[in-house]
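Write out the 3D structure for:
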Amino acid sequence: MSSQSGSFFIVFLFLPFFTDAQSSLSPAELNGIKSDIINTRYSKLSLENIQETDVVYNPSLGGFHVYLTQTYKGIRVAKTDINVFYKNGKTTVLGASAVDQPKSTYTAFPSESPAKGLSQALLHFGIRTTPEPGTKRQNGNKTYFKAQRNNSYESIVEKIWVAENGFLMPAWQSTFELPAPNNKSWEIISKVSDGSVVSEACLTVECSFEHNVEDTQPSHFIDDHYKEESAVNAMLTNSYRVFDLPIESPSFGNRTLTSNPWLRSGPGNDATTLGWHNDNTTNYTITRGNNVYAYEDKDGNNAPGFSPNGGPGLDFDFYYSSFKNPDSIRSAGLTNLFHTNNLTHDILYQYGFDEI
């Protein structure tokens, strides 16, 4: 679908389906995991230098994914993630990038304003902020600032340490969205001492496809073919006419009509306990449910707009043609968006991605 029709917004809600007892580890177990990491990987670190950031129970594997990071004087060290799997008292380190014997000439983090860090990061893109952005709220080592210019997202600046040749230097990690027309989210790490940028990362993912199929087919042929196929399948319910996975775009295949696609996860699978159109309180007939909410967002302000309605039978069989104005095929596009993202949720759920 052409970008002329605006943008579509998706909300993922990975809801937990497990009990509190399963989804937590005791302080003793967490300390045991940290001790295992120290004994097997980082002998120079101590328990207080390793901090867990998340613990996720995986019902498929019957164990816990534990995510940790290295700290120094209570502040996170950038890019020192540690990922382990814990089951039945055994710790398996899956990945680790900590600094084993960190050094620093700093006895404490400098008392600079986080607003200065945000200003330095924005200046990297030629944006000058005068006066410095006003603080909205603070939570631990993170400071949240009011939205910048034309965007609706607050900016976040976090105190961190960065490692350079084994030495830890104080830095700011600034996360923000650039104003229009860029509208991309960025993560910038800059040194406190001189504002120089250590790393930059664009957090907005964009996709483009090479179109190997020439648009030379008469549109009336597609119109007639669609009408004939729809008449044959008119009695199907809980159906979606989409470019089904693994087809990634119209250039690589044709649309098909899928029925009850949530059953692909298998009977009784928690990934689709509620189907795709129920959020545990409401049954929807539009492209909304407990995992995904697909709607049109022409103004790019994250305000829910048009969503296609499949009626009581959840029949999402809408017209599509690559020759038509994007506004005339938005129902088909949003249906495809809803279908693909729900399938993505159901697939990822099998690998432990069952909460946020």
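The longest helix spans residues 330-349.
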